[in-house]
Design goal:
By secondary structure, this protein is an alpha/beta fold. The chain contains 9 helices and 8 strands. It starts with a helix and ends in a 15-residue tail after the last strand. Bound molecules: zinc ion (ZN). The site of zinc ion has 9 residues, from helix 7.
């Protein structure tokens, strides 16, 4: 049961039959780890916080740069040069002091990815490179933690929920394969990105994460595992692809040790 001030704050959720009081309690009891507080992570964390997710861990190694401000909406000029994760955690604390927000300033790589899903109900990955995405996915599979993965470039967005720890469901590595482990090949700096696309993809990712967190608690809780939502901002249009589990995948098949 939520206290009266929380009932009031989340009244528009609670009145939705698809969320309701039970759903809002489930969100309040959830812990989401956000990898990347940039173009995707910035709007995603705003709407995760607005949804009353009880605990948010915000991970990013970067500092705020002027060119981030075109799309990374939690940052302001006064934040230039400061660690994104810390500024983002302060934003959450100011926005809703009831949320436990913590910052982790550091880069996620093969050496430390196993720590990312610890204690999390869900990991939302909106980072900027494939190598990190793959090791985060592998860590989520091995710990049995669901992953919402979102990517952004130019006018394209991709969002999917993964549960590779389940025998019938694909992981992120089933989707992209092993070819990108060592490369940083999807950087906004090289390709450019429309700022509003970051907002759309970040919010879409937050919504898909909320589906996972509500699973078993409320009607909106359909995790839609392995369904990739492809948003084309130029058209605009949305396509949905089903990602099959790869029996040879070294991230999630039973052959892994
Ligand atoms: Zn896999």
């Amino acid at each position: 049961m939520l206290p009266p001030d929380r009932l009031n704050r989340f009244a528009r959720h609670i009145v939705l039959p698809e969320v309701g009081g039970a759903g809002q309690v489930a969100l309040a009891n959830s812990h989401v780890v956000l990898v990347g507080c940039g173009g995707i992570g910035s709007p995603a964390l705003q709407y995760l916080a607005a949804a009353g997710i009880g605990r948010l861990t915000l991970v990013d190694s970067d500092v705020v740069e002027e060119s981030n401000l075109q799309r990374q909406t939690v940052f302001a000029p006064a934040d230039l040069g400061r660690a994104k994760a810390e500024v983002a955690a302060k934003w959450v604390q100011r926005f809703d002091p009831a949320i436990e927000a913590s910052a982790v300033v550091g880069r996620v790589g093969a050496d430390n990815a196993a720590e990312v899903p610890v204690g999390a109900d869900l990991v939302l990955d909106g980072c900027d490179n494939f190598a990190t995405r793959l090791v985060v996915s592998d860590a989520c599979v091995s710990m049995g933690v669901p992953l919402t993965s979102a990517a952004l470039g130019r006018f394209q967005g991709q969002i999917a929920n993964f549960a590779g720890h389940l025998s019938s469901e694909a992981c992120y590595r089933c989707f992209v394969g092993d070819a990108f482990d060592a490369e940083d090949c999807d950087t906004c700096a090289a390709d450019g990105v429309l700022g509003a696309m970051a907002g759309l993809v970040g919010c879409f990712a937050a919504m898909q994460a909320i589906r996972v967190l509500l699973s078993g608690h409320a009607g909106f809780g359909d995790p839609q595992w392995g369904r990739l939502q492809l948003f084309d901002g130029l058209a605009p249009s949305l396509r949905t692809l089903r990602i099959a589990k790869d029996p040879e995948c070294r991230g999630c098949t039973s052959s892994r040790t």
